[in-house]
């Protein structure tokens, strides 16, 4: 039977903390929809890059918003697919170029306002585990569960490096560490919805945990707060 009350779980934290992998696995286990809001920002950023605009130029970026149509769909496997003006761009969103552009564009208040409603609508219609930077603080301040997932900068850069290696894309660990710090500083330091834990968030630091330990702890927190 369909659950009547929709449950929302907000997972925030810095890039590379394992939010998407953990949230996706937890959603599968709990039978919730997983919403990767970073992919929504990345889709908008891809358009900005394609148009040759500077992602950090708020006025230029705001001027492009009317021509950006971002939609989200789920395939048979339950995987989130991102569409930019009807084109499936899911496989184009994970480059370092798009990562940096998304972080810059996300500092623009007009971009955040533009993407807010679609995130709230998804949570109104479905039980969700939604990950991002401002889910517990801005997007879903009334979420049933809020988790702030983090790990040290070094651990996060190392994980990204291993992930790239696994995909046959050798990265430079020092450069990844620099970029991780740079993105943290920008995500935490921006005026619009800066990255920070919601007051009622449970802190989950995975620096010393492996994937399974982190997942078990996440599920335990969700079950503890929702009684599911
Ligand atoms: O989670 P991610 O690395 O895919 O996110 C890409 C960028 O988008 C990130 O640097 C910050 C921004 N972002 C945001 O500001 N708010 C969100 N809810 C999700 C992502």
Q: How would you briefly describe this protein structure?
A:
With 228 residues, the protein is an alpha/beta fold. The chain has nine helices and eight strands. The structure holds 2'-deoxycytidine-5'-monophosphate.
Describe the structure.
This protein has 228 residues and is of the alpha/beta class. Helix content is 49%, strand content 16%. The chain has helices at residues 19-30, 37-50, 58-64, 96-105, 109-125, 135-139, 153-166, 173-189, 211-226, and strands at 8-12, 33-36, 70-74, 80-84, 87-88, 128-132, 145-150, 202-205. A five-stranded parallel beta sheet has the order 2-6-1-7-8, with helices on both faces. Strands 3-4-5 form a three-stranded antiparallel beta sheet. The longest helix has 17 residues, at 109-125. The model has no long low-confidence stretch (mean pLDDT 94). 2'-deoxycytidine-5'-monophosphate binds next to helix 2, helix 4 and helix 8.
List the helices and strands and how they pair.
Blueprint: E1 8-12, H1 19-30, E2 33-36, H2 37-50, H3 58-64, E3 70-74, E4 80-84, E5 87-88, H4 96-105, H5 109-125, E6 128-132, H6 135-139, E7 145-150, H7 153-166, H8 173-189, E8 202-205, H9 211-226
Parallel strand pairs: 1-6, 1-7, 2-6, 7-8
Antiparallel strand pairs: 3-4, 4-5
The structure holds 2'-deoxycytidine-5'-monophosphate.
